[in-house]
Amino acid sequence: MIIEVKVPSVGESVTSGVVSAWHKKSGEFVNEGEPLFALETDKVSTDIVAEKSGMLETKVPEGQEVKIGEVVAVIDDSKQMSKQGKEEKPKKKEPEAKKKEPESEKKPEAVVASVDGGRPESTTQATTLSPGVRRIVEEEKLEPEKITGTGQGGRLTKADVLKAVENRGKAEPSEVAVAKAEKKIEPREVQPPHEGRFIRKKMSPLRRKIAQQLVMAQHTAAILTTFNECDMSAVQELRRSKQDEFTKKHGIKLGLMSFFVKAAVEALKAVPVVNGRIDGDDFIQNNFYDIGVAVGTERGLVVPVVRDADKKSFADLERDIADYAGRARDGKLKLEDLQGGTFTITNGGVYGSLFATPILNPPQSGILGMHKIMPRPMAMDGKVEVRPMMYLALSYDHRAIDGKEAVTFLIKVKECIEDPTKLPLDV
Questions:
Q1: How far is the C-alpha of 122 from the C-alpha of 56, rounded, in Å?
Q2: Active site residues
Q3: At 43, is the pLDDT very low, low, confident or very high (cuts 50, 70, 90)?
């Protein structure tokens, strides 16, 4: 029985995807529940598994865009055998084919092997050459059997050999060309000369979605960014002093992001409007704190959401963030992991960014940008001290949030980071 493998629905708003990789090749035997291919959509990347065991026959190549419900392969469950057993059959026939080849090749040779009463053609021509023709052949080192004779009975004339001498220089390039044509041409030989100057390829569904979202954010919101800086000394000292105890107790390291999630929650409570969004002519005020944490992957930037961040401990936050980061890089995030955030935090500092303006993650009204920690001279109590400093950036929708509220929010984050005792510590 032939079973069709169709592209399943992976979300209400998802209408198509790309077969990014086949885990099984056409002609291979697959077991029920084995991953067949990776489907990449504008939301997530997920593995599609086999519903039945059998022999797989793929219908579309890797990299092709397919629609939900489209047939991309079939499985023949009547062939319940291993791949190895399937490949043994053609191997048994190969020796027989090879044995027959020499026999077929011998037949034309037997027909044209001799002429002129059974004597080899080359011998016949050699013995029938006139003295003048023989002299030219010997001096020019020609091969008479390769020259077409125009004389009586196909004999070589003086004109034939002189013409062969004239054409000998011209024939060599053509022979080389024939030899090259008979050779298997490597892929690089057929590529256009300008191929290396640029490569054109389709954007992945995720990258197209990111592009659409960013353009939409720029077109629909009045984005403004305010900046501040914070001293990371207290957080760094707290992490150093509590790291061993925290790791031993919770089985995970105390990172930096959990401090900023906690600080952002406290700032959102102090300035609730930043935790809202505009919907048409209405403003929706969220009274929960689902914080998106941007994660960079090879496929692009994704923003999994930490649910109810205000109710979670530092250890819970670190586990959630580490789990999301790992699954994002492996392409294992689910659609629901990316939906419903009320505020976003992005950390360009991990890539070395010192100063940047983040773009809103629609339909949210605010996004906090973290940057690289850099030792800088600071005036402290009338003295100059070198402190580990970080620039902070808050981009916000000026339609809903005034400058005063944005600055107040950012100062609250700064205060919580510079004095972690203002956070609900459980470290």
A1: 58
A2: 398, 402
A3: low
